[in-house]
Amino acid sequence: MRRIFVAILLLVGVFGVTAARAQNNCTGATYYDAYSDTCIACPSGYEYNKDSGKTDISQCQIHCVGGTYVSTYTQLEYIESTGTQWIDTGVGPTAGVTSMEITLQYTNVLSGQSGVVIGSNPNYHSFKIGINASGTNFLCQSGGEGSEALFGEPDTLKHTFVLDKAHATCAMDGIVSNLNSNANATDIMEHIYVGAQNTVINGREPVTHPSSAKYYRFKFVNGNTLFRDMVPARRNSDGAIGMYDTVSGQFFTNAGTGEFIAGPVIVGCINVGTGYWAPSSTVNYGDIGMRNSCPAGTYSDIENGASVAACKSCTGATYNSKTAAASCIACPRGYDYNNDSGKMDVSQCQIHCVGGTYVESASLHVVPNGYTQLEYLESTGTQWIDTEYVTRTTNIRGEIRVGVSKTFASSANVDILGNQGDSGKYKYSLGWANEFKLYIGSRLSGPTQAFEANSVHDLVYEFGDNRTRSLTIDGATPISGTYNASYTPISPASLALFTGRDAKTASFKNGRIYYFKLYADGELVRDMVPARRDSDGVVGMYDIVTGRLFTNAGTGTFITGSDNIGKCVNVSAGYYAPASTVNYGDTGTRTACPVGSTTVGYGHGADTANDCARIMRIGDYVVYGRRDQVTVPSLNINIPDERTYYISLSPDNHSLSRLHLSFNGVKYTAYDDSLFYGERDFDTDAQIVQ
């Protein structure tokens, strides 16, 4: 027994020495694995730590140069579809895609067969890039059939396509071809799919024309804003393969069947992306690196900022309220008075109103330059708006301000909004029938009340879990209840304004909408305000979420409210206002003249209390005087031909102190007898000796 025990000790001692020797022999980019008792190479890219004796994979390191970091994803050169894998990019029908850049490579080209590598619905103003139906050419299409550009014969080489929808062109590897007039910047009617195109406008499956191809990169642009920059990647937590969007930070995985084939790892360190910066760093395998957000009031438009110097201040009439921004936001039109750098909120944008003007009404919305906000849209009975939002959840909230231009009869029955489709089993609507009502299967009504002319009401409706619904009117206690399980707000029909959508026609005649907000699962999906597009005068509801103007889907023309929102306007007669600077979202102030006096009221002249003076009447027409001032205009005389004459009562200049006019055959002369010039002859201007 003693010999056996000694032998065991010797054996253990020998093994321990062997293991220690193997561990100490792990040099360079290797580490010791006790299970296999061997040195194992560090993962690709993690070869920075060359110290000997590493005992765990976590001691393998990667060195990221400034402007890069280790994300939760590893960038790949490409991902490859075998024909059944595809990706929903999340870019919906109202994203406003104006251009895109796609780099791809077919892995097989079948003679006489089409293959779409990226596309939307083929039957509803589609766009697609791939191989045409006959299999004879590369294809780039935008705006439906007949709007395509054809390039060379299909091959298995790597190509880059650039589709510029705004200018109706497409390029393959830099060779530009024009698309015909059917192409436009708003023709995407469904989600954009990588690897396939959709066949059902209100659904996401099935997909057609899947393609066997390698996908390298996808960029989507709205105007000058990059809002998708998708690169092939592997999610490190579970090894899932998909495409990572460096702009939004979202990871998009396979929506089809089977598995994507992962291309080679480019590097474990990836660019920090626009809006961020990071110094050089060393990261252990399994750890995540750090990147820093550019603070509010700044932005970074480069993808590899290595220091905080990459974050540039918003200058001039721009601001930025978010961190990690790739660009600054232009102040609303006219609000360009404050040029201080680093503005962090739209409220810091300012407008300067000259004396005699003020901001009459404030805007709580930020409509971009190129659009003019309107007070409301009013339908005459044939105009309506398709929001193009398809409800896919039972948890929704809508906020809307409505009004009417005339009193509605108690028998009136109108739909303010709705998503009613071809079956009553999936629809909801908000309307009025002698009372506000929320309809889904049955009516949930507010108290009976008149809908008086020029009245304005704030309505909030909600659908929640367990079939709950509620309606709040002007902030009053919500009216609540449940709806039958046979019904659902989920509908294949998109939500419409000014109608319940049953007949695809407007029903909210003489009705006005001031704004509309819609939330789905707590996310703001529509924030719509009436607006006019400056370039062509077209009006509609501008959606701040998607950056699109939704125009009349019916016939005729909307009636529009005032466009003075957020503008400097004249104080009007009877008021005065000094020059002022007003922040966006605020209103200005004006002061009323004392009873019995008034002002000229044409803007620049009504800036102090001294502008308030008595009036003189000539027949039915009024002469406005100004008190204690010599500025122009001093007198305003409005005569029947609607011409206006001004006179300044100068203490030393006779030529500025005379005014002759004739009214209904009677001659009038205005003069200042304190000048000792005396009265002047109306016809000859000769002095009349007293």
CATH class value of the largest domain: Mainly Beta
- Rg from C-alpha positions? 36 Å
In quaternary terms, these chains amount to single chain
pLDDT < 50 runs, ≥5 residues: 1-20, 182-190, 198-207, 630-636, 642-648, 673-677
CATH topology of the largest domain: Jelly Rolls
Helix content: under 10%
Distance between the termini: 153 Å
Average pLDDT: 79
The global form is: globular
What is the domain tally? 5
Tell me what portion of residues adopts beta-strand conformation.
Answer: 35-45%
Count the beta strands: 59
Structural class: mainly beta
Q: Topology of this protein?
A:
Blueprint (H helix, E strand, L loop, with lengths): L1 H23 L5 E4 L4 E4 L19 E4 L3 E9 L2 E3 L5 E2 L10 E8 L8 E5 L7 E5 L6 E5 L5 E3 L7 E7 L4 E4 L2 E4 L14 E2 L2 E2 L8 E2 L4 E10 L2 E11 L5 E5 L5 E3 L7 E2 L2 E7 L4 E2 L3 E4 L7 E2 L4 E2 L12 E2 L4 E2 L9 E2 L19 E4 L3 E3 L11 E3 L3 E2 L6 E6 L5 E9 L9 E5 L10 E4 L3 E5 L1 E4 L10 E9 L3 E6 L5 E4 L11 E4 L13 E10 L2 E11 L5 E5 L4 E4 L7 E2 L7 E3 L4 E2 L3 E4 L7 E2 L22 E4 L2 E4 L10 E4 L5 E4 L10 E6 L2 E6 L19
Antiparallel strand pairs: 1-2, 3-25, 4-19, 4-23, 5-18, 5-22, 6-15, 7-12, 7-18, 8-9, 8-15, 9-10, 10-11, 12-13, 13-14, 16-17, 18-19, 19-20, 20-21, 24-26, 27-28, 29-30, 31-52, 32-50, 33-46, 34-45, 34-49, 35-44, 36-41, 36-45, 37-38, 37-44, 38-39, 39-40, 41-42, 42-43, 45-46, 46-47, 47-48, 51-53, ...
